[in-house]
Amino acid sequence: MSPIGKLFKWGTFAYEAFLALPFIGGAFVVANAWVPLGVAFLLHAVAVIILLRERGSIIGNAVGIVTSVVGLIPFVGWIMHAITALILLVEGISGSRRNTRY
User: Fold this and answer.
1) Are 60 and 87 in contact (CB under 8 A)?
2) Is 16 exposed, middle or buried (CB count within 10 Å of its CB: 0-12, 13-18, 19+)?
3) For residues 6 and 3, what is the distance between their CA atoms, to the nearest angstrom?
4) Which pLDDT score is estimated for 86?
5) What is the DSSP letter of 98?
6) What torsion do the CA atoms of 41, 60, 90, 23 make, to the nearest 10 degrees?
7) Which residues cross the membrane (predicted)?
8) What is the rounded distance in angstroms from the CA atom of residue 1 to the CA atom of residue 56?
9) Are 56 and 1 in contact (CB under 8 A)?
10) Which tens digit of pLDDT belongs to each residue from 75-101?
11) φ/ψ (deg, to 5) at 38
12) Which one, of 30, 70, 63, lies nearest residue 44 by Cα?
């Protein structure tokens, strides 16, 4: 995976992990009128495009796109952000150990 792919993988993980914080992430989303969910959607969409070009794993970012839409539902969104962060963490760790798929 290229440095840009790694940056987007780890960056989207950090953003999802922040949004998964029980009260802080929810307060951040509500205080900014759900705009952070749109930002997350765009970050995940760009990451998917970059990772498709590099033939990297896109599962975590695809789940992140779904999470950005479902995140409008308060407690379901919180659980989905936590699941997405966990998937992105596993992909980030395993992606740094292996080469791109061909």
Assistant:
1) yes
2) buried
3) 5
4) 96
5) S
6) 40
7) 7-28, 34-52, 64-90
8) 7
9) yes
10) 898 999 999 999 999 998 887 666 555
11) -65, -40
12) 63
Please check whether residue 9 is in contact with residue 1, taking contact to mean a CB–CB distance below 8 angstroms.
yes
The two structure tokens encoding residue 33: 């009128």
Q: HEC profile for 11-80?
A: HHHHHHHHHCCCCHHHHHHHHCCCHHHHHHHHHHHHHHHHHHHHCCCCHHHHHHHHHHHHCCCHHHHHHH
How far apart are the C-alpha atoms of 38 and 89, rounded to whole Å? 21
Count of Cβ atoms closer than 10 Å to residue 59 Cβ: 13
Q: DSSP string of 2-15?
A: -HHHHHHHHHHHHH
Q: Look-up: residue for tokens 């992909």? A: 91
